[in-house]
Amino acid sequence: MPPTDATTLLRDTALRVTRPRVAVIEQLRRHQHADADTIAQAVRADLGKVSTQAIYDVLAALTDVGLVRRIEPAGSPARYEMRVGDNHHHAICRECGAIADVPCAVGERPCLQASDDHGYAIDEAEVIYWGHCPACLERAAATHLPEELNETDPQRQQALPLTEPSGIPKFENPSKETT
Ligand SMILES: [Zn+2]
Ligand SMILES: [Zn+2]
Q1: pLDDT tens sequence across 5-42
Q2: How far is the CA of 112 from the centre of ligand 1 (A)?
Q3: Sign of CA dihedral 70, 103, 168, 141
Q4: Domains of the chain and CATH, by start
Q5: What is d(CA 145, CA 84) in angstroms, rounded to the nearest whole number?
Q6: C-alpha angle 113/66/33, rounded to 5°?
Q7: Distance (Å) from CA 177 to ligand 2 centroid
Q8: How far, in Å, is the centroid of ligand 2 from the Cα of 117?
Q9: Quick one: which of 178, 143, 179, 173 has its CA closest to 160?
């Protein structure tokens, strides 16, 4: 099924069709889970001068009407995607920040059944699986393999390559912002 074109999507939400909005939707389709800076750069390449603030405004409007989903991984700028409404989850690489979609664990939004809802009317559950992506695992294996072959300490071997000292994901400074 070919994706509905951006203009039609916007009309269906009663949002005014503007060039920046159309451009943001098109770029979100190209850059899955992109942050606002990435989208802003891509939109500028298409349309010329558009301020980063304008891109934030467009992303907020699209998120409000449910065309775009915003995810906020700890330690990283917010990411945006066009895949909405299926309550899918994300696997995020601690090393490079790569993000992969993970379908909801078992069928119909089971994670919305909180074991204790504390009286909240729950409408969304967000799970982030933190770990290392295949590319980073491969890179780590390639780097550590020769050393590991000669390594005799079993504890050390066990620790490679999945552990990192801080356990804090390495992302760019989230507060960095250009206008
Ligand atoms: Zn990675
Ligand atoms: Zn996603």
Answers
A1: 999 999 999 899 999 999 999 999 999 999 999 999 99
A2: 29
A3: negative
A4: 1-83 (1.10.10.10)
A5: 41
A6: 85
A7: 23
A8: 25
A9: 143
